[in-house]
Specification:
Coenzyme PQQ synthesis protein D (PqqD), Outer Surface Protein A, domain 3, PqqD_sf, elongated, PQQD, 5 strands, alpha+beta, two-stranded antiparallel sheet
Length: 120
Amino acid sequence: MKSKGKKSDNFLLYVPHRSDKVEWENRKGKVVFIFHHNKLIEKTVRLFVKRPKITTLELDEIGSAVWNLIDGERNVYEIGQKLKEKFGDEVEPLYERLIMFIRYLNRRGWIYFSRSGHSK
C-alpha cells in the first residue's frame, strides 16, 4: 500500500495567502468577491447576451470565517482549530470540508500557499 505523502508534505501545514488579484469586501459580516467582466470577449458577449458588467459571490458564514482566517500566518491546521472553536460540530467533518474549500480557492487563483514547518 502506498503512502499518501511524506509527513513533511502534510497539506495541513501549508499556509494560505490571499491573492491580490481577487477583489473582495466585507458586507454585514459576510465576505463578497467582486468580479469585473471587462475583458474584450466579455464585452462582446454582453452585446448579445444580457450579462452584468460586475458579478458578486457571497460566501456563507463558515466560508467567510475561513477567508478572514487566511492571514498568511496561520496554516490549514490552525485555521481548522479556529473554526472548531467558533462553530463546534457544525463544521464537521472539519478537515475534509476545509481542505476541499481551500483547494477550490486555490484553483480559482484567489489564494496561494507557502509551507510552514511549525505550528503555533
